[in-house]
Structures are given as C-alpha cells and as structure tokens.
Amino acid sequence: MMYHLTDALTQIYSGFNLFQYLTVRAILGVLTALMVALLAGPYVIRRLSRAQIGQVVRDDGPQTHLVKAGTPTMGGALIIGSIVFATLLWSDLTNRFVWIAVFVTVAFGAVGFVDDYRKVALGNTKGLSAKAKYFWLSFTGFAAALALYFTAASPTETTLFFPFLKDVGLPLGAFFVLWAYLVIVGTSNAVNLTDGLDGLAIMPCVLVGSALGVFAYATGNVIYSDYLGIPYVEGVGELVIFCTAIGGAGLGFLWFNTYPAQVFMGDVGALALGGALGAVAVMVRQELVLVIMGGVFVAETVSVILQVGSFKLTGRRIFRMAPLHHHFELKGWAEPKIIVRFWIITLVLVLIGLSTLKVR
C-alpha cells in the first residue's frame, strides 16, 4: 500500500522515491512486523487467557509437559497478523507472488485455527480430523501450485534446480503442480511436528525465512542471478518483504514464546509458517535448498515416519518418543538445552544453504 502511495507522492517530493527501493521496504517490513507483534502481544495473550484458550496437553506426551496445560495457545494468529500487515503495507500489491504467499499463509492458518479451536473448545486433543485437515491443506496447496503453474512467465519457474550445480535443472512441466503441492504441504506439516517445545519451531522459521529472503532478492535481480548462476524469476524479488516480515513477526512472537512460554503458536501458527516457507521456496526455485536449511524440520518428520513404520513392522520403537525432540527430553536433556541446540543446528544448516549461492 505504501509502495503505491509513495510512488504517487514522488510527483510532489522526490524524497519519497526512497520507499521504492526494495531493500528499504524490506527493512521497514521486518521492523513493522516486529513492532506489531511486540505491541499487540500482551493484548492478544490477555484475550486468550480471558477466553480460556489454554493449551490441551496430550496424555501420551512427556509428563514434564503437564505444567504447560492452560498456557494460552493460538498465538500464531499474532504471527499471521503481523506478517500480513507488514507485507501488505510495504509490498507492491500488483505482484502475484506476494498474493500467493499471503493466500497460503492465511489459508493454512485458517485450517490450524479450526484445529486449535476444536482442541480448546471441545477439550479434544486430536482437534480437526486427520482427513479434514489433509483435505483442506491439500486444497490450498494445489490451488497455490496451480496458480503458480498457470501464471508462470518462463520455463524457469517450473524447473527444478539443484544446489551446488551450475545451470543444472530438471524441467518439470505439468508435474510441477504435484511437486509444488508436496513441498508446500510437506513443509507445513514438518513445522507443525517441530512445534513441541517453547520457541523450538519459531526460531528456525525466522532463520530459514530470512535466508529465503536473500534468495528471493538475488533471484529477482537479473544482474545478481546471472553473476551467481541461479535462476532468474522476474518479480519474485518482492517476496523479500514477505520473508523479512516472517523474521520480524517471529522474533516478536519469540519474545513471549521463549522458555517458559507465555503463549504457544498452536497449529494456526505452525501450519501457516510451514506453508509460507514452502511456498516461498517454490517461488524462488530453491526447494532442495529448503531441505538443507530446514534440516531440523526434516529430522523431526523423518523421526515420526521411522517410529511409526518400525512399530507397525516390528513392534519396536526406534526412539523413546517421536518427534525427535521428545526423544531427547526422555533422555534427560533439559528443555532449554534441546531448544538452543536445535537453533544452533539450524543456523549452521542455513549458512550451508546460503553457501549454495556461490558454490556452484
């Protein structure tokens, strides 16, 4: 909105041209999202507490989590609101990538909202049925994938590129729709599985989202993309504002979510953030780099798959409990230690992912 307003105001005063620069708007995006989250956080927490929107702890989880029962949840609505507000305020609203990213975030958040509401209102730890959740996530994922496929302006936008290799890509054609759907929905569920400890999921989302912002900026710049040997996608640079908004909103939420948490993001936040990261990775053509940078999300998901598969096939469990962070809890690791170590691992993986910009 401000992008268009300041563009018109440049006719009156040339100084407003400053707000046309993508880097300036990206900085304003992160600051806006951060301030909205910090200022609105206490109010949101009070409202959730008064409405008795408290966390329902599963009876089959670690016993140390019983003390968390009643902590306000559904705080992910604060994250989504901050991201959307900052994005719409500073982005070019004629950009299709921006709207697709916002659509995925809000739609996935809506699915998570219904899931969380059923948990806290009905006291049902399972929330929305697995079939219903899968249907609506799939519907949104396919809608976004189809939108990207039919609006693609060049073959680059539907080609799978491999990290560390220069000019090596696999044209996906119509298969791009299925691939994009899997990345978006898969990332959403992976982040949701990771969100089990105070601040565990939000910081990796901040780190990965910020790194994807770097990829968005470089991918949308014809000079930088050519120099770095990465795909050029016209207009995708505008996503850097969306990515910095994720960073700002995430840091603002972490202020209240850090151990011991005053509020949890719930499915409304985890599904939305995961979907947002997956969608951005698809749009900047860095899905495989997302796998590297989001290694913690991948490990958490794989741990669940292995645990379920092993138990069904052999009757034995590989881990003491899945997802992976629960395994370390039952091994006696303190919760803050698990959280910080997972953050450190994510930081290292993000740096490896960023290195693919130059190592080709």
Structural description of this entry:
The structure is a single chain. This protein has 360 residues and is an all-alpha fold. It has one domain (2-355). The chain has helices at residues 2-9, 22-50, 76-90, 96-122, 130-150, 175-194, 202-219, 222-228, 239-257, 266-283, 287-293, 295-314, 324-330, 335-355, and strands at residues 159-161, 169-171. Strands 1-2 form a two-stranded antiparallel ribbon. A hairpin with a 7-residue loop joins strand 1 and strand 2 (169-171). Helix 2 (22-50) runs antiparallel to helix 3 (76-90). The model has no long low-confidence stretch (mean pLDDT 92).
End-to-end separation = 38 Å
In what range is the share of β-strand residues?
under 5%
User: How many strand units?
Assistant: 2
Helix content: 55-70%
Rg over alpha carbons: 20 Å
Mean pLDDT: 92
Biggest sheet: strand arrangement: 1-2
Query: What pattern of helices and strands is seen along the backbone?
Result: HHHHHEEHHHHHHHHH
Shape: globular
Segments where pLDDT lies below 50 for 5+ residues?
none
Largest sheet, strands/sense/barrel = 2 strands, antiparallel
Tally of domains: 1
Class inferred from helices and paired strands: mainly alpha
Q: Total number of helical segments?
A: 14
Produce a short descriptive summary.
The protein is mainly α and 360 residues long. It is 66% helix and 2% strand.
